[in-house]
Amino acid sequence: DQQVKQNSPSLSVQEGRISILNCDYTNSMFDYFLWYKKYPAEGPTFLISISSIKDKNEDGRFTVFLNKSAKHLSLHIVPSQPGDSAVYFCAANTDKLIFGTGTRLQVFP
Amino acid sequence: DVKVTQSSRYLVKRTGEKVFLECVQDMDHENMFWYRQDPGLGLRLIYFSYDVKMKEKGDIPEGYSVSREKKERFSLILESASTNQTSMYLCASSLADRRSNYGYTFGSGTRLTVV
Lengths: 109, 115
Fold this sequence. Notes:
The structure holds 2 protein chains of 2 kinds. By secondary structure, chain A is mainly β. Helix content of chain A is 0%, strand content 56%. Helix content of chain B is 0%, strand content 51%. At the A-B interface, strand 4, strand 5, strand 9 and strand 10 of A face strand 5, strand 6 and strand 11 of B.
């Protein structure tokens, strides 16, 4: 029973364009949503989060949107840079984090 | 900076061996977690602990056990390693306020290969 889903295993975007990573969830009791970024051979690092009482949170090039009625969140990266190439995990928080399966983003020149 | 240190980056063990993965955090965090990462499956929770001597099963505890004798150290034990336990193992810690919008701090991971 996958409570947090990332249906796109990979995404390829040209440098300078927008990257949009999507995440769906099933449990309406989740109160925080987070995005993590992971490079190979490293642990995931926290990127950005959003409370369930908000619909948008922005931090520099990164914006997370939350649509509670659709149980959907998305991460926008504008402009995309080659250093953004990594695996991105969305996660939902109750008393512990539940992670999605990840989306591998590749930003090419 | 919060640091979560995993004792080994790479390990190769034989089937049937008892394997210990060690994790130490230096920020006095109450909560500690063990995940494994596999392609297409994301991060799956094995065990977690909210206090010393305390442990709770996550989503995939079979074949694993844990030990938390001190607040800063959380050990994952593979009682009898099998090839399907070949994976990247990630340790994480967090403050006691579970509903934190900053989530967890992860270690760099241990890539375990069981042959």
